Amino acid sequence: MRAQFVLSEIGVGLRRNLTMTFAVVISVALSLALFGGALLMREQVSTMKGYWYDKVNVSIFFCNKNDAETIPRCSKGAVTAEQKKEIETDLDKMDIVESVTYESADQAFKHYKEQFGDTSMADTITPDQMQESYRVKLKDPEKYKVVATAFEGRDGVQSVEDQRGILDNLFELMNGMNVAALCVMALMLVIALMLIVNTVRVSAFSRRRETGIMRLVGASSFYIQMPFIMEAAFAGLIGGVFACGMLLVGRYFLIDHGLALADKLTLVNFIGWDAVLAKLPLVLAIALLMPALAGFVALRKYLKV
């Protein structure tokens, strides 16, 4: 009987404040969709870092005859066979080095033409302008500075470059987008909480006579407050369900179909459905608990019986 009464009171409260309840649902849905999206974006960046950082190399570029006139560190002339052999020997002695691959000037020129053959600058580059290099695969890409410190400034070495720098700008952009999404999410969350508090307050005010009678006949504070708290929790749960739906549709539309980024960006290791599904229980839990807690706090302040 008590459960039936509580459920009936929830229905009455939702019907009386239908417009505000709808606003709560939309606000909670948008804020939690942004929250889930931010979590997935962070996981995507982490996945891409793990995927790409494991594949990039440290490149040791050697001086060529053209560099002797333009680059001070190559003033002694092009790299010699002895210098290359010495550097290769030193690399083999380093525990952090997994493998070393030699790339000749002709091979570098061929790769350059494959990547930039359609540009106007490609016609001005000749094979003798390209640098020979060692492509060094590290066991731990984070230890790039060990290689840089050991070989930068040595005779015959023009520069030591970590290819991670090419990817860092992309990851910084994605992290910036993630921070922006979190900021918008925080704003939407504040709006949702304000709406929840206001909705609970209005609902409590409109039923102050009933709650007063319940107090007079000996009803506990918990029993009186429960319908209001459950109203807020129910509205939040509906918003959470919509947020989960938006995350699922977003993953389906952006990656698998619609924009089909998985087909267009084959080099990107996108997060799978398991990552999305793993976030849904958290979104639903927050959607249920956040309004309930907000409703409880609002009732302590506004419910006067």
UniProtKB/TrEMBL annotation:
The keyword Membrane applies. InterPro entries: ABC3_permease_C, FtsX, FtsX_actino, FtsX_ECD. It is found in: Cell membrane. GO terms for biological process: cell division. Residues 56-160 form the FtsX extracellular domain. The keyword Cell division applies. Residues 183-304 form the ABC3 transporter permease C-terminal domain. Keywords: Cell cycle, Cell division, Cell membrane, Membrane, Transmembrane, Transmembrane helix. Belongs to the ABC-4 integral membrane protein family. FtsX subfamily. NCBIfam families: FtsX_actino. Forms a membrane-associated complex with FtsE. PANTHER family: CELL DIVISION PROTEIN FTSX (PTHR47755:SF1). This is Cell division protein FtsX. The lineage of its organism: Bacteria, Bacillati, Actinomycetota, Actinomycetes, Kitasatosporales.
